[in-house]
Amino acid sequence: MAEKFTFPNAGIHIVSHKVGEADYFLTKLNETHSWEPEYNYLFSAFVSALRSITFTLQFVMKKYPGFEPWYTSRQEKLRKSELAKSFVEFRNHAQKTGLIPIMKERSFFEGVFYESDQFYVPTNSEIKKVPSGHVIELSKQCLTEVLSVVGECYRDFDVYIDPRVLFTERGITALNWTVEDIEEMVGFPRGYTDIPYDYESTGLSKDETRLNSLRRYGGDETLQFYLDKYLAQ
């Protein structure tokens, strides 16, 4: 008989919080003029949160079966991305030097006039090239690249991390769980929903009907909100 799956202590909500953090700082950055001192504060916070998304994803998912070989190919994809690589360098440069390599709109640097907020190559730094384009748009593109990996993970490992799938017959079958296990997980006594009822009238199986009644106690699903915001455009 297959063994029941035991969830690790770290949940996908940790990743959701970090994605929400990056989204928050990017939103604030977009609302702030680059000549205001808060602009640099916000960009520094954004790249730090952005970098942490994949760290937290690995931390949360490392104990789930099949994740490590799955993530290896996605990690390689991000490493090959010039944009993602640049943002890692921006984060490292900001942490090591305290400097943000952004030229503000309508400014001069080494004989170059910048009409809009753009990245530049700092003198005597490890940064050798930067992506061209507006800071906000490039930041959004990079967050989208990272979230594409998170979205794939959310889809491919849905029975473990998507509460909408966990509260289904497919979900509990994959985990070798029962409806009673779900009841216990959300804080009810085992057998709490096993009551006399005309289950055929629902058009669903008895287990599916019981799971539907428990789904509201499974917690809010927040990650999908950010995936829709950045990937469904």
TrEMBL record:
Listed name of the protein: Uncharacterized protein
Species assigned in the record: Imperialibacter roseus
